[in-house]
Amino acid sequence: MADAADKHAPGAPDEPVKPDPPGYFKGESMTRRNAFIALGQAFGGVAGVAIALPVVGFAIAPIFEGPDETWQGVGAPDDFVPETYRQAVITEVSGMGEAGKTTVYVRRGSPDVDEDPEEFVAISTRCAHLGCPVRFYPSAGSFICPCHGGIYDFEGRVTGGPPVRPLDRFQTRIRAGQVEIGPRFSVTSQLEPVRTRDPAAFTGGVWEYLYPPRPTTPPAP
Amino acid sequence: MGLRDTLTPAGLRKPARPGEGNGDGASPLIEKAKEAPVDLVGWVDERTGASPFLTGLLFRKVPKGTNWFYTLGSATLFAFVLQAITGVFLAMFYVPSPTEAYDSITHITDEVFLGAFVRGLHIWGATLMVIVIFIHMGRVFFFGAYKYPRELNWVIGVVLLILTMVMGLTGYLLPFDQRSYWATVVAMNITASGPVLGPYLADFLRAGADVGETTLPRFYAIHMLLVPGLMIALIGAHLYLVVKLGTTAPPWLRAETKPKSLREEQV
Predict the structure, then answer these.
(1) pTM, rounded to two decimals
(2) Residue B139: CA count within 13 A, CB half-sphere
C-alpha cells in the first residue's frame, strides 16, 4: 500500500508528473472524458428504453384484453330436451371467420340429476385436457375426445383418460323466445361453477392454487 | 493464365519480364482485359484485407481422421439456407390472415408455377433440418467435441436447436388447416398447463386467451423475422468458434507420441 501511495505521489523519482488533462480544474469530481462517457451511455440507455418499452407493451397488451361478453341465440326452448344434447354453433372468437366458431352441446336441465327443467345446460366441446374438440356419443351417453382419449359422462364429469376437471359450460338464458349462450365458466369435480380456466388447469384440490384464473375472466355465475 | 494467377492479388504475382507483357504475345488491350478480374479482386482485397481472413477460413488445418461425420454441421447449414430461400419465395404469395391464409396456401400449391415444389421443399426441408441437426448433435456428443474449449459452441448449438423447434412450431400453424389449428391449440394448452406462469406465457404466444385473429400474424412474424434473425446471428457465432477453435480429431485416434524422442528427453 505504501508503495502504491509513493508511486502516485507527485514528484516520485521513477514516474514523471503527468500534465493535467485539457479542461482540468482543481477540485473536479469527474474528468471530462468520464463525463462524456456517462452522457453517451445515458443517451444510449434512453434510446434503448424508448424503443423497448412500446415494443414490449405492444407485444403483451393483448393479454390484458378480456373477451367481450356476448350472448348468442341457438334456438327456441322447445327445441331442447333433457334426455340428450343438441349441437349448436356459436362464434367464440370474433374476426377469424369459420375458425372462430365452436360447437356447444345444449340440453334442458334433467330432473334425474337434480336439475331444474326450466334451466338449460350448455356444455363446451373444449376438452379439459389440452383443448381438442370432444364429441357427444348418444349411444354411450359420453363425451369422447379424439386426441388423447379423454372420456366424460353425460354431465361432463371425467370418467376416463387424462383430463383434470369436468368439461367447461356456458351460461344460458332465455331472451325473446330464444335460448342464448353466454360467457364460458369452468366447474369443479362437484360441478360447482368457478371462473373459467385454461384446459389442463385444475379446479380443485391443492393443485388449484397453482392455476389461478386470469384477472380478465368474467366472474362465475 | 491459370486460376491460381487469377486468385493471387496483383501485387503478389511474379511480374512479367520487361517488354514481354504477360508473356503470351497478345495485344496490350487484350492483356488489359485479361488483367481486369485480377485487378478487381486485388482492388477489393486492398481495401478490405479479406484475403488473409478467407485463406484462414478456407485453408485451415483439420485433424487427421476427419471423415464424413464432420459434414453434418454443413448439412444443417445447407438445410437452413434452403429454408431461408424457399421461405422468402413462399412469403411472396402467403397471406397471414385467418380468413385468407388457407386460400393463399391452396393458391401456392395449385396455381403458382412450381409452387407445390417450393412449398414441398420448405416442408420436407424442415423435417430434414430437424433430423440432421440431431445427427450433428449426436456426432458432437459421441466424438466428445463439446469438451473444453468448445463448451460455449455446444451451448450456442443447443440454443439453435431450440430455435429450430420454435420455427417448427410457428411454421406448423401457417397453412391454417384443421391439423395446423388443432396442433397449435394443443401446443398452446401444453404451454398453459405450466403452473402459475404457464397461462400468461401461452397468452403472450397466442396474443390472448384463445387462438384468435392476432395469433396467426404473430406466429408469422416470429417465424419469418424474429427467429431467423436470431438464428443467422447465432450461426455466425457458431461458425466463428468452429474456425477459431478448430475441429477435434475422432476419439479412436490417439495423439501421436514419438517414443524415440521421448526416450531421448528422458535420458
Answers:
(1) 0.82
(2) 22
